[in-house]
């Protein structure tokens, strides 16, 4: 009897394991993107630099994602994703093991709920509407520092209902006695109408003193033949100093005022086009402009920033691409602290990207 019971248990275990394996999956994925970049006015003495650096458009990454079918269209999901620099092997996002994503959740016919570190609602929206899909060099991605990219301790919901896409996130501040200190909340919506897609977003990020960094925006994308046209706007009101701290060149010694009394205000506009010239060759052009008030918390300290970027991408295969980029940045007024030397900077790069 003992041996028979043991055999039955083993048989049931094998059956259950086979069923679970048939209904679940785990995938290793990633991108290794490395470029050689030449930059003018790269330091306070306006010397040029040549560097081996991470990708121009896509940050190198690797991750593990999985799902398990639970029945009735419901799935358990997870994603653990790390950013890294191929030229050194170091992790990005402050050395976090999974700094890009680290969440678990449930996905079904009514939408997806995720818990853990993940993208903000603004970052998620503009990834679909920026012609560069949000670049990786500061020179071509600075406009999106207002989105805060990713947050910890987040509970999110997103869903698609035919042509309508919705998303909402609350980031727990983890502060006893307060639901707003150190917390985040945001919401986005977008709609696909034939060749036209458009969306909007609003979000707030609070610091430990409950001061807020707010941003809002609108964006659109129009497809015509092999071309896609992009348009976008972002507004910002920052009483925390987060945006200035992110954009000031790290080599600068910067004087600051009161961010609460003189919050930074941004009005950022962008436009661009992507063109699929051949099945293998895609061409992209983008332009960004920011009108800034109260830079670094100083009343009346206004400035402007202008950026143009060109990108050519040639596919050697479905997984491997060669690319070349050119970007130009110009700052004036109080925005001079965003570059290390002169008020302009030009960058040229060539690179290779492999997707696995």
CATH 4th-level superfamily: Porin
Unreliable stretches (pLDDT < 50, length at least 5) are 1-22
Q: Class by helix and strand content? A: mainly beta
Strand arrangement within the widest β-sheet reads: 1-3-4-5-6-7-8-9-10-11-12-13-14-15-16-17
Task: Count up the helices.
Answer: 4
Main pleated sheet: 16 strands, antiparallel, barrel
| Gyration radius over CA | 23 Å
Mean pLDDT, as a whole number? 94
Classified by CATH, the class is Mainly Beta
In helices, the fraction of residues equals 10-25%
Q: What is the overall silhouette?
A: globular
Pfam family, one: Porin_4
Keywords: Cell outer membrane, Ion transport, Membrane, Porin, Signal, Transmembrane, Transmembrane beta strand, Transport
GO molecular function, one term: porin activity
Domain Porin: 11-333
Give a brief description:
The protein has 356 residues and is mainly beta. It has four helices and 17 strands.
How would you describe this structure to a colleague?
This protein is mainly β and 356 residues long. The chain has a single domain (25-355), classed as Porin (Beta Barrel). The chain is built from 4 helices and 17 strands. It has helices at residues 2-23, 121-129, 138-141, 242-247, and strands at 24-39, 49-54, 61-71, 74-83, 101-108, 111-119, 150-161, 164-171, 184-193, 196-206, 212-224, 227-238, 264-276, 281-293, 303-315, 320-333, 344-355. The chain has a 16-stranded antiparallel beta barrel. It is globular, with a radius of gyration of 23 Å.
